[in-house]
Amino acid sequence: MNLSYMLKERAAQGKPVRIGQIGAGKFGTMHLAQARLTTGMHLVGLADLYPDRARKRMIEVGWPAEQTQAKSLGDALKTGASHITEDAMSLIACPDIDVIVEATGDPATGIKLCLAAIEHGKHVVMVNVEADSVAGPLLAQKARAAGVVYSLAWGDQPALVCEHVDWARACGFEVVAAGKGTRYHPTYHQSNPDTVWDILSKYLKIEDRSHINPKMFNSFVDGTKSGIEMTAICNATGLVPQTDGLAFPPASRFELAEVCKPKSDGGTLEKKGVTEVVSSVTREEADVPHHLAMGTYVVITSESAYTRECFKEYNMLPDSSGKYASLYRPTHMIGLELGLSIASAALRKEPTGTPICFNSDVVATAKRDLKKGEMLDGEGGFCVWGKQTPADMSLKEGYLPLGLAHNVALKRDIKLGERLKWEDVAYDATDNAVKVRREMEAVFGRRNVGQR
User: Fold this and answer.
1) pLDDT of 355-395, one tens digit each?
2) pLDDT, tens digit, for every residue of 171-201?
3) 245-270 residue pLDDT tens
4) Where are the beta strands (DSSP E) in 55-212?
5) Residue 187's closest CA among 439, 378, 368?
């Protein structure tokens, strides 16, 4: 790794990497805390729907007030301060900005802004994994054609898992499974913004809930975020979903190779080369000791008997047979680590994970019996959760992407657990996000390029 030296060099030349960030939510605010401290980077502009709140958050995470007061992007470029605005397009259109960080979290907004950034020759760091799960393969293809980088966000789990997979393959190992840990129980799929605190309060002590968006938090609890993130990993690595999606088997960090191996060898997976999320909670709702709730992992194997002996010798957390081994990272630091993606895109012209295929999808799945005429409320809401589904199956069955299951009315009754289809909702075919998604389906069809 030499990104820090490259950044230092840019600083010495008076040519820092110039950043335009869109969104100052939790992830974005965490990045703001570090952007100020990173040699060779200049946050030229920050766009947010609530500029005064964004400025307040910058100051709360350590920015001197005067550094948040640039009156324009031109002023920011001259003084080294930052300009805060509601106008995201002004950042995208600014010829002096190198990298756009898309951190809004809204799929339709993310798709729109990403396409505009690509058109303006900007590298894009897509924090908005919700948008990536809807149309990432097409967005990445368009970025490559334009000669710019479309990158997953380092610090978020998908990019970290992509690095695990790349490490394994570059070392000649076969990837058996890759994924992350989370807190999961089958009943959580019915969680909604009103009941989410019943679950969260069991393990999180949050005194002040005023800054917490229960809908956003609920998307982590109800299984949706896991489906979204594993979809991003599949499409960026060539791994594939299991036929019925994620099973969330309970496992400690020391049991990964035992649990996340094929059923034919005593594990829980239907086959090799898949994603899986392990739970920190048993089906009896007891905590798993030494769990991986905030971490990431990869399980590997090798056809070499000598290599498999080395798994044991070097304590690679092998399974009981010695055939499989694992590597894990115990935690992730979200926006605090985002600088790696920004620097890699700007200085190396390399993404920290990017879609290369359309192997996985996230499908809107009913949390309860739904009635004709009900208006769907999207990710983390009261109506649907996102189930990871093989892309071929999703296209064949005409399933509705979770990212587009928002503000659309149902055309028929839906049963609990049923995956929704395009034909089940009154969607707007002229909507930009719908058109982009349909374009992706047409471009990628039922192709599955498999592992590269």
Assistant:
1) 999 999 999 999 999 999 999 999 999 999 999 999 999 99
2) 999 999 999 999 999 999 999 999 998 888 7
3) 999 999 999 999 999 999 999 999 99
4) 83-85, 99-102, 123-126, 150-152, 174-182
5) 368
Span 409-413, mean pLDDT? 98
> How far is Cα 186 from Cα 289, in angstroms, rounded to an integer?
19
CA 262 to centroid of chain Cα atoms: 26
Alpha-carbon distance values, 288 to 67, 180, 255, 283, 439 (Å):
46, 15, 11, 10, 43
CB-CB contact of 338 with 25 (8 Å):
no
| DSSP H helices in 147-223 | 157-170, 196-200, 214-221
Model-level pTM greater than 0.85? Answer: yes
| Domain spans in the chain, listed from the N-terminal domain onward | 3-155+335-348, 158-184+223-332, 360-444
Pick from 219, 230, 295, 223: nearest CA to 25:
219
Provide the b/e sequence for 59-79 (b: ≥16 CB within 10 Å).
eebebeeebbebeebeebbee
Q: Are 173 and 362 in contact (CB under 8 A)?
A: no
Q: Do domains 3-155+335-348 and 158-184+223-332 have the same CATH topology?
A: no
Domain 158-184+223-332 grouped into CATH 3.30.360: yes
pLDDT for residue 450: 39
| CATH pick for 360-444 out of 3.40.1160.10, 3.40.50.300, 3.40.630.10, 3.90.1210.10 | 3.90.1210.10
Q: Give the integer Cα–Cα distance in Å for 223 and 140.
A: 26
What type of residue sits at position 277?
Answer: V
Domain range 3-155+335-348, CATH architecture:
3-Layer(aba) Sandwich (3.40)
- Strand pairing class (17-22; 99-102): parallel
pLDDT tens digit sequence for 163-172: 999 999 999 9
Q: Which residues contact 52 (CB under 8 A, 6 or more apart)?
A: none
Q: How many CB atoms lie within 10 A of CB 161?
A: 28
Q: Report CA 31 to chain centroid distance, whole Å.
A: 15
User: Cα(47)–Cα(59) distance, rounded to whole angstroms?
Assistant: 16
